[in-house]
Specification:
globular
């Protein structure tokens, strides 16, 4: 069983930055950050494959940077120029292949951006 533990969330003013971390019990092919805001459906924010290929949702392009350290089994999300619309619970997730659905999920870390 893969375990994922997020950290780094908190309260920040609009325009500020936060860095989320996810500690994984092992590396999988594709890892990503999802979020679910109040009254919204969960959405994929960014993902990175084991080879380093990345994906970003249009809403965060140019502001968020996803990275992974395979040696440490860590996933990161650097979030800059935060907006109130980024307020959400952020979840780390992992899957075995690009064709799979995300199978493993962390418990989430709350990010709140005040205006």
């Amino acid at each position: 069983q893969v375990q994922l533990v997020e950290s780094g969330g908190g309260l920040v003013q609009a325009g500020g930055s936060l860095r989320l971390s996810c500690a994984a019990s092992l590396n999988l092919f594709s890892m990503g950050w999802h979020r679910q805001g109040p009254g919204k459906e969960r959405e994929l924010v960014a993902s990175v494959s084991s080879s380093g290929s990345t994906y970003y949702a249009d809403s965060v392009k140019g502001r968020f940077i996803i990275s992974r350290d395979n040696a440490k089994n860590r996933l990161y999300l650097q979030m800059n120029s935060l907006e109130p619309g980024d307020t959400a619970m952020y979840y780390c997730a992992a899957r075995h292949t690009a064709d799979d659905k995300y199978k493993y999920w962390g418990q989430g870390t709350q990010v709140t951006v005040s205006s």
